[in-house]
Amino acid sequence: MKFKITKETLYTYEDLVSLSPHTLRIYPRVDLHFKVDQFHLQSNSDAQIQYRRDLHDNLVAHCFYPNTSNRLGFRTTIELSVREKNPFQFLLDSHGLKIPCQYKDEELAVLAPYITMAENAKLPSPLAPTIPRPTVETLANINSWIFENIAYERRESSHRHTAAEILKRGSGSCRDFSTLLAETLRQNGLATRLASGFVWEGDKPEEEKKASSSMHAWVETYLPGAGWIGMDPTNGVLCDHHFVTTAVGRTESDIAPVNGSYYSNKPVTSSLVTRLFLEKLD
Fold first, then answer.
1. Domain boundaries in the chain?
2. In which band, very low, low, confident or very high, does the pLDDT at 39 lie, cut at 50, 70 and 90?
3. In whole angstroms, what is the distance from residue 30 CA to residue 245 CA?
4. CATH 3.90.1030.10 fits 94-240, yes or no
5. Which CA distances in Å does 236 have to 98, 185, 194, 223?
6. Is the CATH number of domain 2-83+257-280 2.60.40.2250?
7. What pTM was estimated for this model as a whole?
């Protein structure tokens, strides 16, 4: 199976501005299921682009702009070879059969930051910690509860809602779904990180698609014996080969597709236009 992904982003400014260095987390994670056949990133003509690994081992493009401009553009083209992945094909170690998992000391030495809760929000009983429960069944129930009880809304705003706010609103974007699931899993003693990337939604009716025109966010949780397992509460599923991960991290800022600023000695308004195309080549 092959995918082609084209992502275009254009910021325009009403006057010339100075641009800070920008970081892009757009390069797919490579493993047994994903191979990058082609990758091409374009930006402004004067851009100097360097690639580095960050703290979470994401491959990040660092873009530098020596000149002022009234626009900032990015165009990324990716071609991927993809092998089928069964998200349930794993065996748990004995200390991971129940939630909360009893992580070993050597696991906790690495995973401790991913268990720390962001806010300790009050969770409804279907999500809240309780007596030890079977791991896979409990994860499926938690994922399904969020999918069924939080209404999806497309939201371009950069404002971040807390888990408590999301529960009170009863709705949210894919980032909000992921924030709520991460808080829930951490309260249940599971090491959890956020993930972002692209999702192939196939032949779903357009009104049912939630990631066809923008990048998507989901969650990965660490299960002894299984490793990091992807969970998408927005769609209520475990993540298979249709989920192309470009970044993972402990917080939302760790996985942001684009980070950067612009500067001027006077107020300058800006606008943003994005387009995303995902094609299945075979």
1. 2-83+257-280, 94-240
2. very high
3. 9
4. no
5. 21, 15, 16, 19
6. yes
7. 0.94
